[in-house]
Every structure is written in C-alpha cells, then in structure tokens.
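Dear Dr. H.,

I hope your travels went smoothly. While you were away I took the liberty of generating a structure for the chain from your last submission, since the lab meeting agenda had it listed for discussion. I wanted you to have the full record in hand beforehand rather than looking at slides cold. The sequence, exactly as received, is reproduced here:
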Amino acid sequence: DYGRILDLLWELYSRKDATKLLLENIASQAKDSPHTSVRLVHAHLLRRSGDLTAAATLYEAVLKTEPQNRVAIRALADVSMELREPERALKLLRQIAEALPDNDPNKPEAWIELGTVSLGAGDTNAAAAAWEKAASLRPDDAALVKRVSQFLLQGGFPDKAGDHLEKLAKSTTGAQRLENLTELARVREHAGQFEPADAALRQALAMLD
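The corresponding predicted structure, in token form, is as follows:
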C-alpha cells in the first residue's frame, strides 16, 4: 500500500530525528527528476510533515501537466479539506465522481462523499443531489438506498428520503419488503406525513396475515 509505505518511511526517519534530511533529499530528487511519481512522493511527505500549503502547491503543479492524475486529484481534495478550502475540494471531488465509470463499485461512494462535503460547506441542495445520484447508480442495492435515505433525512430532506424507501419497498418481497415498509413508515412519520406513514404500516400488517 502506497500510503502505508510512505508512513513507514516517515516514521523511520522520525525515529532518528531526520525528517528534515528526508525532505531535503526527496526535494532534490524531485527537482532533477521528470517523473511524476517522485514529485508526488515529495508532496505526500510535505503533507505528512504538516506543510499543507506547500503540498497543495506541488499537487497543483502535477495537475498542470497531468490534469487527470487521480492520485494528485484525490490528494489535493484531501489537503483542500484540511486547509478548509471547500470550494476547491468540492470541485475536485466532483471531478473524481464524474470520471469513474458507472459500473465502478467506488462510484456511489464518491457521490456520497461529495454530498457529505457539500453539506458541510452549507450547500444542502447540492448535497441532496449528490446523494440521490449515488442511489440512482444502484437502485436495487438496499443497503446503499437506506444509507442515502438516512443522509437525506439528516440533511433535512425527509420527503426525498421517503421516496427512495418507497421505491425500494416496491421492488422487494418477503422479509426485506416488510423491513423496508417499516422504515418507510418511520421516515414518513418523521416528516409529519400521517397518511403515507399509516399506509406503509397497513401494507406491512397485511403481509403478516
């Protein structure tokens, strides 16, 4: 694992109180090397040292020559969040989410992360849109849809949360449908929607006959 190896390298030099020497050596190599990997190692170690601004500058330099470098995009997004620069972080996270193929198993999680960061930045509508995008990628994935519904509920969108659960309930049978109807009733009740909550519970009761 790339990150783990860099952490071990940093810890090795840290035990000898020689992290400054490590950074100087890597900086010298990066200056003379045309290889992106060396520049990324330098940026990663600067981040590890706590110099986030310098690390961000190096990641940006990599992206100027390789705009689609996923390692640099991901790292710069993380550093931007640490630097409390949500606009840049959100732009990069969206780039990551949109670039992944629809069949990539990591794509829903990328949209969920974008939604969570959007919520933290105060943009609730963008958060909801990102979460719903995640659910739309795997509409039959009960665990994913329930997660998205919970995010929507916590984000202040009980109607949207209920709509996703209702679709899920309609697409399932047996014990899963019973569980989904019960959760749907809870969300509808939370939203102050008595009649839809009542309807969901009545459907659940009918399954027990």
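Two observations you may find useful: The first helix runs from residue 2 to 15. The mean pLDDT is 92.

With kind regards,
E. W.
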